[in-house]
Amino acid sequence: MPDLASRAFLLRAVLWLVIVFVAWAWLAPVLLLPVAWLTEPVLTALQPQAVAGVEASGKAAVDIVTRFDASMLPARNQTPERAHEIAFSVNALKYGYGLPLIVALTLAAEGVSTRRRVLCVLGGSVLVLAVQVWGVSFEALLVLGRQLGPRVAEVLDFSPFAHEAVALGYQLGSLIFPPVLPVVWWGGCHLRLLVPAFRAPVPGGGD
Fold first, then answer.
1. How confident is the model at residue 77 (pLDDT cuts 50, 70, 90)?
2. In sequence order, what are the residues at sequence separation of 6 or more whose Cβ sits closer than 8 angstroms to the Cβ of residue 163?
3. 14-59 per-position pLDDT tens digit
4. Which helix (H) or strand (E) holds 90?
5. Rounded Cα–Cα distance for residues 57 and 33 (Å)
6. Cα dist. 201→2, 180, 197, 207 in Å?
């Protein structure tokens, strides 16, 4: 009975989502380390005159450390804590919720070999890591180009095309990639489960 099987899968998926999301949030400081390590060479290659480094910070964020002195900030944004350098935080977890989604859906699926489950989760982890690096990088570029004040923007000297490209990359990285790519990946890993669910019944074909 497809309807009963689908409901059972949804119930298992919800239960696993709760468990996996709690574990994911608890492990966040560790999971953010590779995000910071991989984002740093990307940003320092794209903006070597602007970005000095990227560091994991706290449970949800990575810090983008710039090469600019805090005196370049508008006066309203200058604080004693930022007396020597400009640094800002980017919430990297908001780009990575696809990982617990992939894990939960994979654990909820029945009739799947352990090997396929492991490969799906490992491949999905790499995909989500790439999504996080993309999202953090474009959000950092957006902040650098538009939110740190005119003196920083003047040094970067983004062209109109560069501003549009950064805005497009940010929109893709925040609205499209995090929710869509993990689900597409999971679906590709479990086509044998999905195809029967979407196959139209044959008239007169019996039960």
1. very low
2. 145, 146
3. 999 999 999 999 999 999 999 999 999 999 999 999 999 999 987 8
4. strand 87-91
5. 9
6. 11, 28, 10, 9
Bridge pairing between strands 61-66 and 51-57: antiparallel
**pLDDT of the residue at 74:** 62
- The pLDDT value recorded for residue 198 is 47
Secondary element (H or E) of residue 20: helix 2-26
Kindly list the domain boundaries of the chain, sorted by start residue: 2-198
pLDDT digits (tens, 9 = 90+) for 143-152: 999 888 888 8
- The overall longest dimension of the chain from CA atoms, in Å, is 78
199: left (phi over 0), alpha (psi -120 to 50) or beta: beta
Question: What span, in angstroms and rounded, lies between the C-alpha atoms of 126 and 77?
Answer: 37
Could you tell me the two tokens for 183?
A: 């689900």
Which residues, in sequence order, are CB contacts of 94 under 8 Å at separation 6+? 60, 135, 174, 178
Please state, for a pLDDT cut of 90, what percent of the chain lies above it.
65
Q: Write the burial class of residue 114 (CB in 10 Å: 0-12 exposed, 13-18 middle, 19+ buried).
A: exposed
Taking the CB of residue 112, how many other CB atoms lie within 10 A of it? 16
Percent of the chain with pLDDT over 70: 86
